[in-house]
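TASK: fixed-backbone design
INPUT:
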């Protein structure tokens, strides 16, 4: 099998938007409806789940490589920057943030964490939004910790130090 045509390699860490960081365990060919299809077999540690994603659908699902150290640092910087106030209508806000989460870039995830964290300081978040915030925070911690080779605890401290400037 020619790995040049494939986007990811075995043992590579990848991000599956809204699911978390995973590792490509293998690339396997399976028959589906009398057609041979290549699949990435990805283990997601956060949910202790192994999934199979068709290679040709991975990009459409937003699966991507872990960001560089530089991108991870940009995401951390974004958290401490000023931001536009977000809509007060929580349903509109929720949909906007859900769409950002599905896009799955580390900067989008950092923007969600920043805006919902500051919103929660004004007024308690509705349950769905609280879950979205928790998911985004976990995704950000996971990816940045892998990218910077730091523990999740260290990264969590870095995030909250930026959210609450002294």
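OUTPUT:
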């Amino acid at each position: 099998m020619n790995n040049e045509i494939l986007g990811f390699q075995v043992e590579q860490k990848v991000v599956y938007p809204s699911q978390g960081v995973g590792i490509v365990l293998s690339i396997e060919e399976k028959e589906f409806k009398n057609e041979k299809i290549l699949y990435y077999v990805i283990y997601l540690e956060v949910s202790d789940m192994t999934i199979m994603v068709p290679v040709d659908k991975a990009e459409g699902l937003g699966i991507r490589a872990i960001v560089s150290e530089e991108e991870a640092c940009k995401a951390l910087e974004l958290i401490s920057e000023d931001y536009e106030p977000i809509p007060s209508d929580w349903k509109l806000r929720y949909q906007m943030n859900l769409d950002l989460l599905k896009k799955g870039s580390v900067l989008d995830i950092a923007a969600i964490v920043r805006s919902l964290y500051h919103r929660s300081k004004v007024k308690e978040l509705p349950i769905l939004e609280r879950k979205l915030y928790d998911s985004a925070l976990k995704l950000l911690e996971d990816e940045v910790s892998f990218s910077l080779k730091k523990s999740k605890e260290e990264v969590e401290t870095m995030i909250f130090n930026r959210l609450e400037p002294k």
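COMMENT: The helical segments are 55-58, 69-80, 90-103, 106-122, 127-148, 152-163.
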